[in-house]
Amino acid sequence: MPARLKNYICFALFCGLLLAEGCKKNSSSSTQSVVATLKASAPFPMGSAVTSNGILSNYYYQGVLLTEYNSMTADYEMKFDITEPQQDVFNYAPGDALVNFAAQHHFRMHGHNFIWHQALPPWVLTFQGDTSAWESLFKTHIETEAIHYKGKVASWDVVNEAIRDDNGQLRNRDATPGDGSGSIWRQHLGPDYIARAFVYAHEADPNALLFYNDYGQEWGGVKLDSMISLVTGLKKRGIPISGIGMQMHIDINADTTGIASALKRLAATGLLVHVSELDISVNPGADPNIVFTSALQVKQAALYQFIAETYRASVPAAQRYGITTWEFSDADSWIPVFFNRKDWPLPFDAAYKKKPAYYGLLRGLTN
Ligand code: 9MR
């Protein structure tokens, strides 16, 4: 073989080797770079309700939160009973722990909430005063908290759960005396208290996005109609409302048609749409002997997937405020405690490991 040809073949072989090596390196680095996470997969913020205890003292909790999420909602730390336990005495320590963590780790912080008929301190429940004294405590609370968190909280659930489930009317006095379903706010401040709450919040922090937040949209019917007419009415009047929160505390038997049509109707308001408190109960019948079988796990995963897919399909990109799960581990869900039953509603199990529900959600974000 002539020397020139030999040199050429050697050179070509050498180049081939280099190329193969390069491909190997590329393919291994690209495998490493495609570890999917919720926040990297979602074309909108992925949020969770979080507690100060979780972020301060639980390494598993911090690990999942930091890896998977980029938005957080205060679980209880910014509610009235915590932030103003006595009149004009404000307590921001628990909420400050959240906003500090959010700032340090570049999370969007969603405030929850200024006005709700629950989580009220005793002094509010027993307050005696005329309409103007009520208005003053209401306005002071909203303004003082909004000013404290100005620049730290991106958005607020200004009013939470103001509408009755049964007839779509505003909660007023208890539906049945003593059942806790009524709203002292409506009772003492009249039906337009919701609009004024938004105005006070906006005056205190003009940059914050302001939401009306409620549950049960997926049932359709009178509650959804009423919610839509409330928010569209506010918008028409120029009240500074930016969005609507669809909590989505649902269960494994939820009607998927109802979810899809609610998302479409909410999107048609033109407001931002936040799936704000998502969890999927698998034991709505409170069966004490229930086993979380793989069939149930798969059914739950499919529903998580459906929700993410339907949100993407039904809500235009500019109106997607994101999907927020209400906590992320079964260890921290409110459902087993509140209903005193076994349940596994969230994407991570009680040991902070990914469940099929996690993979369903992930698939729904990317499919
Ligand atoms: O999950 C929350 C729980 O930890 C609190 O103790 C409780 C009272 O502050 O509120 C729970 O969160 C509720 C949310 O604020 C509004 N929608 C229903 C949620 C579950 O009850």
Q: Output mean pLDDT.
A: 93
Strand element count? 9
Radius of gyration: 25 Å
Count the helices. How many? 15
Shape: globular
Distance between the termini: 56 Å
Spatial arrangement of strands, main beta sheet: 1-2-3-4-5-6-8-9
Question: Beta-sheet strand percentage?
Answer: 5-15%
Backbone structural class? alpha/beta
Q: Residue share in helices?
A: 40-55%
Ligand names: ligand 9MR
Order of helices and strands: HHEHHEHHEHHEHHEHEEHEHEHH
Q: Biggest β-sheet: count, sense, barrel?
A: 8 strands, parallel, barrel
Low-confidence stretches: 5-30
Explain the layout of strands and helices.
Blueprint: H1 3-33, H2 38-41, E1 46-50, H3 52-57, H4 59-68, E2 71-74, H5 80-83, H6 93-104, E3 108-115, H7 122-125, H8 131-148, E4 155-160, H9 184-189, H10 193-204, E5 209-214, H11 221-236, E6 243-246, E7 249-251, H12 256-267, E8 272-281, H13 294-314, E9 320-325, H14 334-339, H15 356-366
Parallel strand pairs: 1-2, 1-9, 2-3, 3-4, 4-5, 5-6, 6-8, 7-8, 8-9
Helix pairs in contact: 8-10, 12-13, 13-15
The structure holds ligand 9MR.
Ligand 9MR is lined by residues 75-76, 79, 119, 160, 247, 277, 334.
Characteristic terms for this protein:
367 residues, alpha/beta, eight-stranded parallel beta barrel, 15 helices, 9 strands, 47% helix, 14% strand, binds ligand 9MR
